[in-house]
Give the backbone structure.
Amino acid sequence: MTSATVYDLATKDLDPPFAVVDLDAFDANGADLLRRANGKPIRVVSKSVRCRYLLERVLARPGFEGLMCYSLAEAVWHVEQGTSDDIVVAYPTADHGALRRLAADDRARAAISIMVDSPEHLDLVDAALGQGHPEIRVCLELDASWRPLPGVHIGTRRSPVFSPRQAADLARTILSRKGFRLVGMMAYEGQIAGLGDAAGSGLKNSAIGWMQRKSIVEIAKRRAAAVKAVRALADLEFVNGGGSGSVESTGAEAAVTEIAAGSGLIGPTLFDGYAHFSPRPAAMFALPVVRRPAPKVATLFSGGYIASGPTESSRQPKPYLPEGLSLLGFEGAGEVQTPVSGEAARHLRLGDRVWLRHAKAGELAERFTHYHVVIGDRVDRTVPTYRGESQNFG
């Protein structure tokens, strides 16, 4: 029985559009992340999942420890829901309301570490909470981009703290400020973790692979020096690094105590292009055929679920099942209709389902209020996404 037939059978009583999570694939991806981590704990990146049931499931598995949230309001909500008592907020916050909720909640203050990369972030907290506020746990972010030449920046634009000296200077500033406790460091090497080395042409893949090998050596040396400099000043509880695409290289660094990962649990299309690991597609969505404008074309209802990032074809969803379908270059995935073409379209009838995959792991959950959790040829349960729990963290 093909996957398409299995998914169709499991969801035969549901009307598309809807989204499913293949629980066997989700669990297998978790096992593979643990294998690749080689004993180093993994902090689960919530933005790549955005479903409390799935987050709680993976956190119950030995080897996964704590959450990395993208929003302070999200982190406080997870503490209130009892999802985790160990949360790092990966991005600095300017949310005064969420800071006040954090300061007013003893459990949240003990569980949550906020991200800072400049004294101005501390000033913002003081402005939101006033002088004499309760102690706030903070994590210092080191920029992990690769800068092989002056003016050349390869990686994400994150922290202004790049050198070990800058990290130590910021650590001293944090330690000198009342109401703050420095508990951790983080560095995300996006040019390694978030960039596939087998997604393009042979020449492009070779160039990416060369860059990543050079960057792995550079960040390991610089991160170790920065961690050493900061540990001389503060007793750090954790040093976080990496992502789903860099589990092996990040985990091999002695200075790193934990690895961040989330997309590897879901296996979106942007993670099809890595040479050293292949997550199984665990989340997908079904759209119904509503038109047959030509023998080899079927038009689907809705479907324009475009991923964030640079505007290019890789950010569009991709037809998954039945095999042999593709989007039309002129129309792409549309707001109200998505045409697909290919030999397989000849056999599609009105009302049939076409299964598609999103380019990014967590953003599919922003389009659906619920995930239908599939085990084999049945829906085991239906669980709310963040949207289904009336949560929107931006």
